[in-house]
What we know:
Helix content: 40-55%
Number of domains: 1
Strand order of the largest sheet: 3-4-6-5
Mean pLDDT: 93
Number of strands: 6
Number of helices: 11
Structural class: alpha+beta
Distance between the termini: 53 Å
Radius of gyration: 21 Å
Low-confidence stretches: 1-12
Order of helices and strands: EEHHHHHHHHEEHHEEH
Amino acid sequence: MSSISDQPQSQGESAASAPAKQISGSATPPSTTITWSTVINKRVRSGDWADQAISTTAKITEAIDLGNFEVAAQLIDYWMEEAKVVHVVYQVWTDGWAGYLTSRGVPEEDLASEMGRLRKLLAFPDGQPFEPRSRWETLSSMAGLLAHRIRAFEIGATQAHTDLDRLREAWRQLHDRGADFQSGLLTFVASRLGEAAVGEAYAHVLEPYLQERYRPFDIREQPYEDTLYRNLYLSFEAMRGHLGGPDRAGEIDVEEHPDKWVISFDPCGSGNRGQRGDTVEGTPSRSDAPYNFGVTQERHDWAWNEKGVCYYCAHCCYALEYWPAQQWGHPLRIVDSPLHPDETTGESPKQCTWTIYKSLDAIPAEAYVRIGRTKPEST
């Protein structure tokens, strides 16, 4: 498999195959648009929740096929915004784990040695060790060039689809190694400091990030029902960026019930993909050799009091349930994370699900018990 650095960029199409140039919009109404949300103060995709479950990759493809080239170009830029959420989080976390380890007395040379080992273990298909920043710059250049060539009608649909798939594959390679690198560093935390230290590491690294991302969910500042749009939208946006689903394009399933929405991933593109193994590159579960990334051997409030939770997947418990319940009394999303190996192996591995309840009263008592808490008497 080629790396993103040696993928050829298309050199344009003949005048006969390139689309007719237009500067006054399209005669075909777009099926998806990018707009501004004053609720969460950022760009968002239009569409109801069923539509939000469709990957942005698929939406770009659809726009190209409809001849909505400017819409396709804007969606490519937004696709990079989805990727950016994950990329930035992984950079913040990497620095954070390192800071936590050194604060606990792990020598810097030991940390550097382990990080070097992981970068070689997680080498790109072209053999280059995992290093995210230069690959992100290359990805950014690929996306910008593709978007501007599409909007300027310099390439037709066939080449646009080819270049989009190259872009998606470039992000998949970078994204997956970023997720695996977090698993590797958390395993190093557990091996050097004991498994309970993984929870301490999450507290050290995630809390500043959680204050920025999740403080608007504080029901002391606004009613729970007023947070539902933000909660749902950020869920879809982040998980599209993780490139979940069997085709690794960001596919999501969603079901609405009278009291809740259930969002599922087959698989989630980060932790659950790692637990199942990489079907694209043909590599095994990250809990198996040569990776041997850890899963919980003991029960912890920050990992749903379950054994078999991969250390990376435990961040969903900490960030979406344990920490919010500590801060303002209730979890944000109830996560059912498959346990390794019983639920991550075999012919039909279990899907990961997120449940967002429509009211505080609808959140079941068990959701509190499994993170070591009791449901408040009055919500």
